[in-house]
Amino acid sequence: MVLDFYNLAEQPFGVTPDSRFLYLGPQHREALASLVYGTESNRGFLALIARPGMGKTSLLYHFLGYLRDRARTAFVFRTDCDSREFIRHVLIDLGIEVAGMDLPAMHEALNRLLTDEMRAGRRFVLVVDEAQILEEKVLESIRLLSNFETPWMKLMQIVLAGQPQLADRLASPSMAQLRQRISMVMRIEPFTPKEVDAYIDHRLWIGGCDRPSLFTANARKLIAEHSEGIPRNINNLCFNALSLGCALKRKTIDRDVILEVISDLDLEPLREKPTIPAARPEPSVQTPAQTPRRTIAALRRQSMFAGWLFKIAIASVLLLTLSWAAVPANPRNTQAVEVSRIQIHGLNLWAIDPGRIQSGRQIRMPSATTMGADARQQATQSNSALPTEVGEQ
Question: Quick check: is 321 in a domain?
Answer without folding.
Answer: yes
